[in-house]
Amino acid sequence: MPQLKNWDNKTWLSSKEYIDSFVKFLIKNKKLNKDSNILDIGCGRGKILGKIKTKAKLRNKPIGIDPVNHKDKDRNIIFKKIDAFKFLRSNQIKFDLIVIKQTIHFFPLKDIPRLIKYCKNALNNNGKLMIFSINEKRTQIPTFSKMKKKLNHSLKKDSEIRKKILKNNKDTKFKIFDFHVKMKRSSYLNMIKQKYISVLLDFNKKELNKGVKEINIRYPKIIRFIDSLNCLIINQVK
Length: 238
Known about the structure:
Elements: H1 16-29, E1 38-41, H2 47-56, E2 63-65, E3 78-80, H3 84-90, E4 95-101, H4 112-121, E5 123-134, H5 145-168, E6 173-184, H6 185-193, H7 205-218, E7 222-235
Parallel strand pairs: 1-2, 1-4, 2-3, 4-5
Antiparallel strand pairs: 5-7, 6-7
Helix pairs in contact: 1-2, 6-7
């Protein structure tokens, strides 16, 4: 999995408002109690997991796995720098909720069925696997021309993954999570420079600077847009 270091660092995704709203969405769609076990595949700094632990008053710390071990990760989680398949193969814990938030596109398409199978095997009775990806029809993330092309290519892969999951898991439920973003254009430009989204990882400094100039021209000083995610919910009933 590529090392995406800044998606949850000083972005709207790391804001209290976003985290509160996302955790509310999770709890609405999966009831949790103090004994619930939670796993987040691609957890970043684990701020969402940390908030869930507090909100649901969990006895056990949620587990987050990620290829990047951030120094400022949340203290209320158990963090593991480990490959998802390696963790799931050796794991002995049964989870009530497994979250894959905007990271499933990092896996090869051929590996998706196996990943879903491993996740389902790691769920308790009535546990849920929740997979989030960008909603290509509703999201309004500001882009520059070359970034837009990369994003469209990524969204096409997300669509292929979604079709494969739905084909192999007939009882999957579909939900949408929306968050209304309002931020300074200058703040968003800093996010671009820090490569906050995976489609920017291969861009060099010259390409980023060109994109920054484009966004400066195209967007107002205060940017408003919808960050919209598709959510596939797979239930485990044994």
